[in-house]
UniProtKB/TrEMBL annotation, chains A, B:
Binding locations of Zn(2+): 194, 256, 275
Reactions this protein catalyses: 7-phospho-2-dehydro-3-deoxy-D-arabino-heptonate = 3-dehydroquinate + phosphate
Domain 3-dehydroquinate synthase N-terminal: 77-189
Binding site for NAD(+): 115-119, 139-140, 152, 161
Family of the protein in this entry: Belongs to the sugar phosphate cyclases superfamily. Dehydroquinate synthase family.
Pathways involved: Metabolic intermediate biosynthesis; chorismate biosynthesis; chorismate from D-erythrose 4-phosphate and phosphoenolpyruvate: step 2/7
Keyword Transferase among record annotations: no
Organism: Rhizobium mesosinicum
Name by which UniProt lists this protein: 3-dehydroquinate synthase
The encoding gene: aroB
């Protein structure tokens, strides 16, 4: 499945999901080419573009001009930026606008934005007329390397994040790497945590390459494209092996159990912690906990921490501004996220860099004493 | 695919959809057996039962007792009866209650009611946690022979009926034929129109059998069970051939193009017209129009009308209480439902009883002059 082509500056990763197969294009200038890329693959000639208030002034006109040039009529919806937009309220609004634009089953919804816009628009595309076509134009690093690939869509409920949604694969993903230049450094770093994650799951060479090349990835150019392409390929491989998340797809949650608990503990207040920062701290904790369980060497945890610290990501709970709740409450959040069966938890642990695995018998008592040590 | 077993009074129709395969059980006493039938097939032991205010006082306690006896814990939600319940407002409420009941991916939503409850609950089951299991306990004749089979779920939008939803197949359908005794005669007859439809699509012998046995079907007992089983089998066959409605599944819309136009023309006011009544008039119109196009004999149209009239269904537009809008406006409703391409419409026409087919080149001009004749 090594389908990364390097003929031009634009890389292509194919996601071979049978009749739901699709391409991910990664490289510069893709928004300007969006119309022709879409028109050459999908029959319909009507689109509803969903975006947010930060992205719209930067890229909406360029995207619409490109669609127009390809003979695609487009309506657009500009939503507030931020996680709160993943709600039923906005879903209803988007569905209504998509129907108003007379988007039929072979026409498409286009998500232009980060993971919030992608998750919400993909959900709308999955339920309008029981499914219309869907194109992702991810604009944040996180959405380019993670959320735009794999077909998970959804919104949040008062019972928790992403609890309402569908699996709805996109028909095409256009990751324009130029647009990352307008992303804040903090958001870029947060997305980078997910890039590093793919190395830590099962690509030790990629992790080593990142240790040597991360500055080039941050600077842009071919190293950035390479890092994004490897990440998309890694995610695609996992998705193809387990489309509906019944097993191995769980590996993608490396660092996320601790990370989610920290996000919950900071009430999803992005001024204190954004998702990728939680994942960064969570991955260090996962490596340290694995060392504590004598599964991996403490040197690996130190190496992971050193790299994430070098790129400017937080790696310790104590770096989160404000007061964190006590370890017991973090444990409650973990137990809710994961369900404890007979005192045992399912967790992504590791035997070393790039050697992660799904452990389904982690004693809750070990996790809590570990957390108390880390956050006395 | 002739899988109707006749060992006991309960019939079973298997729907062979690969990993989404399921059974439809049809017969007396199934609500009392629901707990054990479910427990023997599905792993989870938690259920959220969704029902309406008419059905709840009649059957909710019996269903819950049966679940309880099988060790299944259940929460319940009682909604207002009627088409208006197929809305985002109620969907949000149902999703919330399902999450509150801590229904996980192997637990289930149970729809206890007619097509309204089935469509709404199935949609909720399809999106909570990106899909939990789903059991249909259809209580109207229409839902037993039509809406509970096939996996179409959804709600209405201000842009039209059933425009928002997902395909989400049930894991089990339990059609308890006893509960039809409490259904109003009018609702029973409306459901019967769909039973007759299966004969008219491609089962001339079944239609002839209905002509001779309809009184026994209305009375209950084995003829009723037989009619429902044949109908479920017919629907299952079409669904298996075309799960996501890309082609032949359209045959199920025999009589529905005219029927939907009449429903729209009466503003979905059930005191004037319910769905099955619109389908009854629509099927007669479809046969008359086919005769007018020299495809079928006018005798077939007369035979269809005679039978539907005999069971007490309306067969003429003039029987609808109140004033209908002029033919031109009915035509507008048809054009909106179907989309006119170059003056041509897709329509289900027939070459005679049980010989329906999908025609995609019906001149709109012919339809309008036909309608003007029928409704001057
Ligand atoms: N579906 C999945 O598989 C999956 C996987 C991981 C995360 N997610 C979801 O993704 C969301 C997080 O995604 P995100 O980090 O992209 O969040 P986001 O969409 O909120 O984007 C982050 C911020 O960056 C801004 N932005 C985006 N692109 C920009 C650009 N090119 N220039 C300037 N500003 C830009 C946005 O307006 C926003 O303010 C979460 O809701 C998470 O649940 C989904
Ligand atoms: N999903 C599909 O494939 C599909 C197919 C056809 C129709 N539908 C949908 O089904 C709906 C119509 O279904 P319906 O006719 O069952 O409507 P319904 O659910 O409104 O039921 C009709 C009435 O009968 C009552 N009722 C139901 N069972 C009863 C019983 N045993 N005793 C006494 N009263 C009872 C209900 O409370 C309601 O008042 C429409 O919304 C239509 O769009 C869906
Ligand atoms: Zn993540
Ligand atoms: Zn119908």
């Amino acid at each position: 499945m090594n389908t990364i082509a390097s003929a031009s500056a634009v890389r292509k990763v194919h996601v071979p999901l049978g009749e739901r197969a699709y391409d991910i294009m990664i490289g510069p200038g893709l928004i300007a080419r969006a119309g022709s890329e879409i028109a050459s693959r999908i029959k319909g000639r009507k689109a509803a573009v969903i975006t947010d208030e930060h992205v719209a002034p930067l890229y909406l006109d360029a995207l619409k001009a490109s669609l127009d040039a390809a003979g695609i009529a487009s309506a657009d919806v500009v939503l507030p930026a931020g996680e709160k937009t993943k709600s039923f309220e906005h879903l209803i609004n988007v569905c209504d606008k998509v129907l108003e634009a007379r988007v039929e089953r072979n026409d498409y919804v286009i998500a232009l934005g980060g993971g919030v816009i992608g998750d919400l628009s993909g959900f709308a595309a999955g339920i309008v007329r029981r499914g219309v076509r869907f194109v992702q134009v991810p604009t944040s690093l996180l959405s380019q390397v993670d959320s735009s690939v794999g077909g998970k869509t959804g919104i949040n409920s008062r019972h928790g994040k992403n609890l309402i949604g569908v699996f709805h694969q996109p028909d095409l993903v256009l990751a324009d790497t130029d647009v990352l230049n307008s992303l804040s450094e903090r958001e870029f770093r947060a997305g980078y945590a997910e890039v590093a994650k793919y190395g830590l799951i099962d690509k030790p060479d990629f992790f080593a390459w990142l240790e040597n090349n991360w500055q080039a990835v941050f600077a842009g150019g071919s190293a950035r494209i390479e890092a994004i392409a490897v990440s998309c390929q890694a995610k695609a491989d996992v998705v193809v092996a387990d489309e509906r998340e019944n097993g191995q797809r769980a590996l993608l949650n490396l660092g996320h159990t601790f990370g989610h608990a920290l996000e919950a503990a900071t009430a999803y207040d992005s001024s204190r912690l954004v998702h990728g920062e939680g994942v960064s701290i969570g991955m260090v904790l996962a490596h340290e906990f694995s060392a504590r369980m004598n599964l991996a060497s403490p040197d690996d945890a130190r190496r992971v921490e050193a790299h994430l610290k070098a790129v400017g990501l937080p790696t310790r709970m104590s770096e989160i501004p404000g007061t964190l709740p006590p370890a017991e409450m973090l444990m409650d959040a973990i137990a809710q996220d994961k369900k404890v069966k007979g005192g045992k938890l399912t967790f992504i642990l590791t035997r070393g860099i790039g050697r992660s695995f799904v452990a389904d018998d982690v004693p809750a008592s070990e996790v809590i004493s570990f957390l108390k040590e880390k956050h006395p």
